[in-house]
Amino acid sequence: MDWTDTAIVLSARRHGETSAVVHLFTAEHGRHAGLVRGGAGRRARSVLQPGNEVQATWRARLSEQLGWFTLEMTNARAATVLDEPARLAAFAAAAEILDAALPEREPHAAAYTAFRDLLVVVAAQPDWPADYARWELALLRELGFAPDLSGAGGGNWSVSTRTGQAEVGNAFGLHSLAVPQFLVTGGPASDDDVAAALKVTGAFLLRAVHDQRVALPGRTRLVERLARGATKSGINLRP
Amino acid sequence: MSGTEIERLIQLLAKLPGLGPRSARRAALTLIRKRDALLVPLAQAMEHAAATVRPCPVCGNLDSASPCAICADGRRDAAILCVVEDVADLWAMERSGAFRGRYHVLGGTLSALAGIGPDDLAIGQLLARVRAGGIREVILATNATVEGQTTAHYLADLLADAGVPVSQLAHGMPMGGELDYLDDGTLGWALKSRKPVG
Prior knowledge:
Chain A is α+β, with helices and mostly antiparallel strands. Chain A is built from 7 helices and 8 strands. Chain A has 2 domains: 2-75, CATH 2.40.50.140; 80-227, Up-down Bundle (de novo design (two linked rop proteins)). In chain A, 37% of the residues lie in helices and 23% in strands. In chain A, the strands form 2 sheets. Chain A has a 5-stranded antiparallel beta sheet with strand order 3-2-1-4-5. In chain A, strands 7-6-8 form a 3-stranded antiparallel beta sheet. In chain A, helix 2 (85-101) runs antiparallel to helix 3 (109-124) and helix 2 (85-101) packs antiparallel against helix 7 (217-227). In chain B, 44% of the residues lie in helices and 13% in strands. Chain B is built from 8 helices and 6 strands; from the N terminus they run H-H-H-E-E-H-E-H-E-H-E-H-E-H. In chain B, the strands form 2 sheets. Chain B has a 4-stranded parallel beta sheet with strand order 4-3-5-6. In chain B, strands 1-2 form a two-stranded antiparallel ribbon. In chain B, helix 1 (4-13) crosses helix 2 (21-33) and helix 2 packs across helix 3 (35-52). Chain B is globular and about 65 Å long. The termini of chain B are far apart. Classes of the chains: A alpha+beta, B alpha/beta.
């Protein structure tokens, strides 16, 4: 059996001397793994960078087998951010989160579109950190791990990291995290707002990926990098 | 089919990169047929290498001398440090003959997938070398991959406080490269890294 789909590379792990086991986020087949023959080679390595868009053909004798991919690069997006530390960190973090949080072979068309749009924004827009934070929240919603921020909006709102409920003020004590307004209603966001938003999404992302990975080191590096621009108010992003 | 010793030799040879069971069998047969010319000298060379070759305590290069021949070479510029991912990268730089400074081998790159963090790499030793003084420039020669560049940016951040200029290898068109055959990423990066002519 076989299919062809557009996809974005999430990760590639060397397998044997010449091949690689590649995880793709496909438009119609969700997160999908497959073997890429020659994937450890020089030519394929430029294709197998997280964030690159490819046309993927998957083939296997039985549907439950790992199968193998034939890939053709359609957009070398990773190369556009290699020399920009924060944008590169965002690419790596987003791919890492999806690789850890998405179930395999379960279509998430909306999440795919959101991921592709995020990469476009991160690669080109100056105010991408706010979009990145909103993307994390949208992904949490898609996966069913998002806090309930429906009542929040404007003013001094916080969310409980235990229940995911939002209340006015610091209602949950040690388990309270401030909810920046842009996360709920959109609009502009300062560095401090983004830092606060990433603290909220980070707390719930850890739940989403808890069974697979203890931590998300790529995301941690992104948060630390963005935090250097958010030290004015003394927000501590490190737990 | 063949004795236990030969089978063991074939099994071990088959574990080498580039050799499968079939080619390992051919290699074993050649070694045995050319006992005096190949097998015995190879065994002696391997035994000697196993006994003497160690990572250099200064740079991480592999050598039988400690420190390695590159670190001990007084003619090389000790003030310029080239940071590479692996010993194979160091050898590639040496083959080019274009660099006459010294090296620092990281031992890999930061990789969330492989579980490699900063503590798993020789980053502490690099910072110690730079902070010890006498370094005029650090050249980051990591690969042009997401992991390689992530590592380079991480090192650049760490070295920012050391007061030493940090540079990076250029990326773009290879020697003899033709535009028509370049992949989109390389071409895009080459365009981004263009410089004035003349």
